[in-house]
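Reminder to self: tokens first, then the designed residues, so the page reads top to bottom the way the pipeline ran.
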């Protein structure tokens, strides 16, 4: 709610030091910086940094302190008593400090760290894909703002024409050449134009608010929106393409982890303690003790578990490949549709120009006929509306053409 109020205040504020200039590329940049999901890029990196740091802690020695006190119902004893040998106490006490140091584990820690890095890059690229998909929404809002801007210019031009015609009709009414109702018809048309301008203004404000929300920025109502470059280039790379490549790299990192799981692992360990009894079970007293050594673990046979896991990853690779092929197929279909749309609108605009030229001649003739009292102002307004509709259709088609070209660039991965 506070955000909406802030945007509304900005929209109705006239800047003191000139108008704000907005470009489509600037809107793209603002989305990549300000849209909520954009924050995930740095968050994912921070998360990965902590995870890798936690993995590397396994290279440091582990230290554990254990203590226990027990009472046993029975203890080890000799069949016959021996001089100088006391029976073991049933209550026993022990405190032990264990230290373990990894010496070799086949590089599995580093492999896991590489996997985390690959996972981070994949997740960051997913964010880039999501942000890129917002471009189509930005394209639509941006071009709609330009369309309402063009329509406003046509409405003002028509409004000026009607005002001029009212002055001429008033003179004719005074001279008795034109009926008073003709002036009233034009006055009513002028009121309709005021309504259209009001509606146009709020439709433009709505799209500006949508664009402001997408870019998380303030945009003034009287901001200047520059027309984007619609030159189509064949060069471009969609972020989805890189995303699929990073997915494959992540799977390969998982394969390296599996390959290292069954390698031998060597650890050095040390143990120091104090207890009753100590290592000498026949010495029934409190004593300190220690022990050092090496420990080797090697899973010689895992019942083809690694093989099955690698086969599953191979299938995962195939799934990613099919997803990439599906995306490329669907995207190419979209590009073909947009190319067809561009060709169609190009043809419509050529016809629009011819229609406008003919309508302008009709309005010129109607203007002369109205001044001479041959037709009524209602007849004149009808022809003027036809001309306005023709010009509006041309502006709509021009905007549709620009939007189709921009969407083609977006789908191609150019911008």
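Designed residues (415 positions):
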């Amino acid at each position: 709610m506070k955000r909406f109020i802030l945007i509304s205040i900005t929209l109705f504020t006239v800047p003191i030091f000139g108008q704000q200039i907005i470009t489509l590329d600037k809107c793209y940049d603002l989305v990549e910086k300000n849209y909520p999901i954009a924050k995930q890029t740095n968050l994912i990196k921070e998360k990965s940094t902590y995870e890798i740091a936690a993995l590397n802690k396994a290279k440091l020695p582990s230290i554990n302190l254990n203590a226990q006190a027990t009472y046993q119902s029975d203890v080890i004893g000799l069949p016959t008593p021996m001089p100088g040998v006391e029976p073991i106490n049933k209550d026993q006490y022990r405190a032990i400090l264990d230290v373990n140091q990894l010496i070799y584990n086949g590089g599995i820690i580093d492999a896991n760290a590489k996997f985390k890095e690959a996972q981070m890059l994949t997740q960051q690229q997913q964010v880039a894909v999501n942000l890129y998909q917002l471009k189509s929404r930005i394209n639509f809002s941006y071009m709609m703002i330009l369309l309402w801007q063009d329509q406003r210019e046509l409405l003002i031009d028509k409004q000026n024409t009607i005002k001029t015609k009212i002055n001429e009709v008033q003179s004719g009414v005074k001279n008795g050449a034109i009926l008073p109702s003709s002036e009233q018809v034009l006055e009513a048309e002028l009121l309709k134009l005021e309504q259209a301008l009001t509606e146009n203004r709020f439709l433009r404000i709505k799209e500006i608010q949508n664009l402001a929300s997408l870019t998380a920025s303030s945009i003034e109502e009287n901001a200047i929106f520059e027309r984007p470059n619609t030159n189509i280039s064949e060069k471009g790379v969609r972020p989805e393409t890189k995303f699929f490549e990073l997915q494959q790299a992540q799977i390969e990192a998982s394969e390296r982890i599996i390959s290292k799981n069954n390698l031998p692992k060597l650890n050095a360990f040390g143990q120091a303690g104090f207890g009753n009894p100590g290592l000498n079970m026949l010495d029934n007293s409190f004593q300190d003790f220690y022990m050092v050594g090496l420990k080797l673990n090697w899973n010689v046979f895992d019942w083809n578990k690694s093989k099955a896991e690698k086969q599953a990853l191979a299938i995962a690779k195939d799934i990613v490949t099919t997803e990439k092929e599906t995306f490329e197929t669907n995207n190419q279909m979209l590009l073909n549709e947009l190319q067809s749309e561009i060709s169609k609108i190009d043809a419509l605009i050529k016809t629009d120009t011819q229609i406008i030229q003919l309508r302008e001649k009709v309005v010129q003739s109607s203007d002369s006929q109205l001044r001479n009292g041959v037709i009524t102002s209602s007849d004149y307004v009808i022809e003027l509306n036809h001309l306005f509709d023709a010009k509006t259709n041309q502006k709509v088609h021009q905007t549709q053409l620009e939007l189709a070209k921009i969407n083609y660039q977006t789908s191609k991965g150019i911008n």
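The radius of gyration is 40 Å.
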